[in-house]
Amino acid sequence: MNIPEILTKQRQYFSTGVTQSLTFRLQQLKLLKKLIQEYQDQIITALQQDLGKPKFEAYASEVLILLEEINFVLKNLPQWIKPQTAKTSLGQFPAQGLIYPQPLGVVLIISPWNYPFQLLISPLIGAIAAGNCAVLKPSELTPSVSSLIAKVIGENFQPGLVTVVEGGVETSEALLAEKFDHIFFTGSTKVGKIVMASAAKHLTPVTLELGGKSLASSIGM
Amino acid sequence: MEQITWDSPIMQEEIFGPILPLLSYTDLNDVILKINDRGRPLALYYFSNNQKHHEKIIQSIPFGGGCINDTIMHLSSPYLPFGGIGDSGMGRYHGKFTFDTFTHYKSILKKSFRFDQQWRYPPYKINLNLLKWFI
């Protein structure tokens, strides 16, 4: 499937409204949780192959943290998706104010190589919880993790809901040429600027999780 | 690494690895100015038992998030929003904040056919001063 076809498929899937129901969202999140548990050994092996991460660190920072996140969302999602009531002003009387949490549509998530599993799946949890469809682009610099994610997602999720697109710079460029409803990018400040410029052409909002020269540790008395 | 200055190559790019460049300071105000002179950091970790200094660091340096007397663990709580500012990014996530990132909050004002406040429409019969008084 090429990229425009994936987008069309996801748009069609989103417009069926199936992602709107709480039951569906919980089901998909439980499936994701089950898969992470089922494949945790392979995930850790892939992280060791690509990055040489120690087992303990790989489990704690890329598996455990995601399971905790999913549990947290499963517990709280029924509350989050309820329409909230809001006060109305005197000039509007009699009226009821309501705020409906609505999914954005089809979103793109691009992740880097340093936490290649966690930084891709963590935003996905929120994207599914909020009722969106998602295209995932894992880092090409961690090929074992990337192909494992592509395989497991491909075998278990509706491509209309979640699709993994593997590849490097050219793939990212092809994805960024498309119109998404949100782009969630984790990576460098330099590439973040490219992502934002591409998104601007479609007026697509972005979340940019960047590093740059980021870690200022300060030690004092 | 010691004998580093703010202009050293290692201070220009993000470090991915077990390398810790050390720069020393004596005046906290001075180091705050130096940090604020550069791109806004994603994270800042401050080690000290001085409560006043904690507040000073938190209030006077723009950065994404961080820890006092620890590193990195602020990102492991679903109750804390994680994200950068300026050069280190925009938006925040984890827990409810990820849900909010991917959610549009649609506002609806629901009314009925039964009652309408006619004074809202032209020709305006209401005294403007009365309207001002109401607000």
The main pleated sheet of chain A reads as: 5 strands, parallel
Largest sheet of chain B: 2 strands, parallel
Distinct helical segment count of chain A: 8
Q: How is the quaternary structure best described?
A: heterodimer
- The value of Rg of chain B in angstroms is 25 Å
String of helices and strands of chain B: HEHEEHEH
Helix content of chain B: 10-25%
Any idea of the CATH topology of one domain in chain B?
Aldehyde Dehydrogenase, Chain A, domain 2
- What share of residues are in beta strands of chain B? 5-15%
Which CATH class of one domain in chain B applies here? Alpha Beta
Tell me what the CATH architecture of one domain in chain B is: 3-Layer(aba) Sandwich
- Strand-and-helix sequence of chain A, N→C? HHHHEEEHEHEHEHEE
Give a written overview of the molecule.
Chain A has 221 residues and is of the alpha/beta class. Chain A is 52% helix and 18% strand. Chain A has helices at residues 3-15, 22-38, 40-51, 55-80, 118-129, 143-156, 169-176, 189-201, and strands at 84-86, 96-103, 106-110, 133-137, 162-164, 182-187, 206-210, 215-219. In chain A, the strands form 2 sheets. A 5-stranded parallel β-sheet of chain A has the order 5-4-3-6-7, with helices on both faces. A two-stranded antiparallel ribbon of chain A has the order 1-2. In chain A, strand 3 (106-110), helix 5 (118-129) and strand 4 form a beta-alpha-beta unit. In chain A, helix 3 packs across helix 4, helix 3 packs antiparallel against helix 6 and helix 4 runs parallel beside helix 5 (118-129). The mean pLDDT of chain A is 94. Chain B is α+β, with helices and mostly antiparallel strands and 135 residues long. In chain B, 24% of the residues lie in helices and 14% in strands. Chain B has helices spanning 28-36, 51-60, 96-101, 128-134; strands at 43-47, 65-68, 89-90, 103-110. Chain B has a two-stranded parallel ribbon with strand order 1-2. The radius of gyration of chain B is 25 Å and the shape is elongated. Classes of the chains: A alpha/beta (221), B alpha+beta (135).
